[in-house]
Amino acid sequence: MAETRLVILLLALITVCLIVLTVSLLTLIAEFRGIAKRIHQVLPEAERMMRDARDSLHKTKKLVTRVDETARAVDGIVRQACVSAADALDRIASIKAKAESFFTGHSGNGNGTRAEPRRRHTS
């Protein structure tokens, strides 16, 4: 008799555990379905956002490429301008040197003295 009560008690305990486990499993399934529904609702918007992000990334890549090409072109132009400016400065220095040598070579009286304006003596 005691053994049958113990068996019945254990069967009851197992039944209660199975019921709790079943209720927990059903609750978990219901929560999972709710999460799946929310994901399903958000998914089209997320897909659109991902598409927009991909398009923006592609446009940014094109823009960066254009900026790089423009920077390279500007660099080339600046280099050419520097070379031209250096050439012009060299020419100016050469002309200045020639002018200085011309004026220093022709500024005297032939005897090595400088030509200065004559002063009138007033008495």
What this model shows, in words?
This protein is an all-alpha fold and 123 residues long. Helices cover 85% and strands 0% of the residues. The termini are far apart.
Q: Termini separation (Å)? A: 165 Å
Mean pLDDT: 88
Shape assignment: rod-shaped
Integer-rounded radius of gyration: 50 Å
Q: State the helix count.
A: 1
Order of helices and strands: H
Features:
single chain, 123 residues, mainly alpha
SSE layout:
Layout (H helix, E strand, L loop, with lengths): L1 H105 L17
What's the gist of this structure?
The chain has 123 residues and is mostly helical. The protein has one helix at residues 2-106.
